[in-house]
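Incident log entry.

Two folding requests arrived from the same account within the same minute. Monitoring flagged them as a possible duplicate submission, but the sequences differ. Recording both here for audit purposes.

Request one:
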Amino acid sequence: MEAERRSRRPSRACLFLAALACSCPAATAAAATTSQAFNTTLLDDPLEPIWNRLDGLSTDILRDFQSMVAEIVETTSTSLEAKLQKLDTDVTTKFEAINNNVLRRLSDVTNQTSRMDASLQAWNSQYLTSVRQQIAASYQEVETVVGSKIAALENKVLEHINNKIASLMSFNLTLPQHSPAPSSSASSSSSTYSSTASTALSAEDSQSIVNQLNAKLVAIDAKLEDLADKVNAATSTLSTINLHVAKINDMDLDRMAHEPGITGETQAGSQSCQTLVDKVSELMDNTQLSSDVINELENRLAEMSKIPTNLPRDCSDVHWYNPSSPSGVYEVFPTLDVKNSVSSWCAMGDLSQKESGGWTVILRRRNTTWGLLDFNRTWDEYTQGFGNPGEGEWWFSLDALHALTYRQPYEIRFLIHDVERGSFVAHYNTFRVEDEGHQFRLIVDGFSGNISQDAFKTKHHGRSFSTWDRDNDNWDKGSCAINNGGGWWFNACHYTTLTAPFPTSNDRNARTIRWLNGETWLVLDDVTIEVRPNNYALRFNAHNFE
């Protein structure tokens, strides 16, 4: 209906033409009249007829015209609304896109900031760890140097005092063998003089005795003055040592203030230094050599003379003094304390090549009936040692290892046997175990041998010792000692562990006693670890060929 109505509706052009056509006869008639009567008044508005004609149009045409105008307005309004709605949609879409882009950029910046922060924290942690390791190494070196200097000073002071006492005690006063009193009628039974000598001391004899006494007193005074000078020099040296000890204590306090986690690590060195200083101080408290002081020193010298001077510290000392000694169990004294001996198996090597001996066996494992000894022991047991050397399996002692290896450079040798692949050897020319205050930290370097991988240093150098009751490893998910069994210098966790249980099968991935060799594990059924002073063979040969 709407389309039909629009088809009948005349256009605006048609209406205008129709109005012109309707007005043409009137205009023609008016022109004819004008030609006849020139006095006729012209119309004011030449379009007046058109307007009059338009006024006479029918209401249908006007209604259609109004409808057309209303439709045009409606169409235009709808079009404008659609365009506004589209514009609003486009603006909203653009805004959301911009907002999403800003959020994405913000998220990227946040992630980059987080990564940078994590990287900075990791770098800071590594730097602090490196600084702490350098400080610990420097402190250990200072502690070793100061300890050796103080020990040398103590030995020199004791030796000097011993010599002086021996010199003082060596004075013997030789007197003429006369009777003790002038009134005596008989000569001394030990006299060597003639029986015809006078029973009274002559003036010449008296003068001789006086002169001899004076000479002896002058010599004693000179000795005392010399000894006093030595004591004063030693006192001055002691003051210097006390100054260095004070500096070390200040360093300890400063480190403890900046690193609260360090507790007993820095105290052991200062205590050992102070102990030595106290010993020296005891010897220098009295500068006057009174009779009581001399008696005390004589008593101490008598006690010291009872202590053997050739106590073997390890098997290399036993071998050094007696190269023909067979392999076996010997008593050694790692701390040089006669009351603190350690039974040790000494591997004396081939008698035809005597420089091959002198090894102290610190660990022995033999898979006899799946192991003779349980190595899943406590911290104290590993510290003191356990087992019976020469009778199956044993562990030497962490305390004894520290006492040996901190005094001089040591080497270590691993003799291991795989259940299927045979024997292997790993050798390191640097081996040291720090004290218990440093959790018996391992220092190892200089690998050689027929094993393709340096598993011991790569994974375990610088690590503290751990047991099931003392977790010092670097594994944050648990305890390596509990997970693998036995005590060891675990990291997180190991490339080698030689105190673990023996294997019950050929499974090379089981948690057993093993050594990483390239991409696979060596599964072991026989292990020997032995140590001796570094370059011992060269020194032994040089000593015996002199």
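Request two (distinct sequence, not a duplicate):
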Amino acid sequence: MLRSWYLLCCFWALHLPGGGEADSAHYRERVKAMFYHAYNNYLENAFPYDELRPLTCDGQDTWGSFSLTLIDALDTLLILGNVSEFQRVVNVLQKSVDFDIDVNASVFETNIRVVGGLLSAHLLSKKAGVEVEVGWPCSGPLLRMAEEAARKLLPAFQTPTGMPYGTVNLLHGVNPGETPVTCTAGIGTFIVEFATLSHLTGDQVFEDVARKALKALWKNRSDIGLVGNHIDVVTAKWVAQDAGIGAGVDSYFEYLVKGAILLHDEELMSMFLDYNKAISNYTKFDDWYLWVQMYKGTVSMPVFQSLEAYWPGLQVSQGSSGIDAHISQKGVENLTFQTSCGIWSNREVSPASSLLPAILKSLTGDISNAMRTFLNYYTVWKQFGGLPEFYNIPQGYTVEKREGYPLRPELIESAMYLYHATRDPTLLELGRDAVESIEKISKVECGFATIKDLRDHRLDNRMESFFLAETVKYLYLLFDPDNFIHNDGSAFDVVPMPYGECILGAGGYVFNTEAHPIDPAALHCCKKQKEEQSEVEELMREFLFLKRSKKSTFKRTAGRSGKESQTASADASLESSRGETNPQKNTKRRIPLLSCLSQPFNSKLAVLGQVFLDNT
């Protein structure tokens, strides 16, 4: 018996992921080499086209002629530590990218890749050593580019339902013959980028249209709480009624969670929790998630799609580094969530608020279930050396014409989030398998090629920009636990603002669905500045009103008494105007319950992510 136990231990020792920090350092360098092999070949053979064609060593425009791979790869450069190339690319993009072009562009892809990539790079510019202009992060060239790109997308939202068309012409708006049928993800994947844009620029239109689209989907869910795959944005009729967590739906659920975290929004989290309940009730079978009919809940497709592999990570994620929940012996009343604002404590929340328990339940939440689902997906990876687009679960094999693997990141993304939450070495094993498989199967002389068929490893002549934006980034972060993205709040940057100081770079980054990290604290940096700007504009309007009123008085009256009467009338009108505007102004300046607005630096000390106020 003892001998058998000894042999079993030896067997496990041989198969356990090994190497510790030295092993992680080795794979970090391997991943970095993968990035530069792909990136340098894009620059040499494909720029300024959107994407590299690695088999023919040339380029092609795919999503709108934006030099897309360069935008998508920009924040990855900084995560890998290359500040000089980051700075160079920022200058190149300002000179070369033009959105005023006659091109039909995907509203969804332009948002997540272009708007998201530019916003992330804008917020990381100072960290990358870029000389930022006065007023940053509330102004800057990359922010203006992101705003310009987003404005080109706004015509798509002009529908009776508020749900956007899938395609828009960047010069002319929505084409007259454009199909009104859009996938669910193409409607519900804007709140992260558009809300960030609204908070940084002060223009509420972006967040408003994103919220309206989210709520329209929510309003049109079925009686059993599910949404379908495609909907008519004009009539709100479901065209494809398959419900699941994969292609066509995936990032809608992702953005409900990430939008709730980014904006401290109870409503978005409540929506996700209701969906999550319905998903568990109707689509989950033995730790797999199937596709079902949205009205009846009957199985329509017993398949796993590679895009579903984000789901285990979503169950534990809060941006880049998960939620650090610190629960003292006194219990949940001292529960604190570490965010980029230093601390997010339930002492800041009204007793009636259900957001923190909801987040605790859904995100730190059921790690055991998340791991079981992840391991199901990992077995598929091991079977083929990658995840096929569709996998028939009962048959245990690929689905015809869906055998490819375009180097997607979703399983690696989940591994990164789960590893940060559990430190389970199995997750590092997946990372090593991914590096070995991609290098062995996909690497060619001019980059990394999409795998057309995982059964015989035939390749396709395309390298999607998300390979550099997501796949390589998540691999690197999996093996680099000390990266600034994983900051636990113990370090941060203090940015002087016109009204005080803003705390940035403390961690808690929220990744958009293209893996572009957004610093949540930045959303609070500009709010007060924009409010003060509005107050100045309001005072100027009052001043001009008074000036016009006085001129009118002198024209209409000949006597002193008449002039005094008119002046008094103007003054009374002004006081009345002030009386009407002041309550609104005071309402605006009231600090939200779930907010971490900038405070004078001497009022707080950040120690390991915890903030101690003067009055505590």
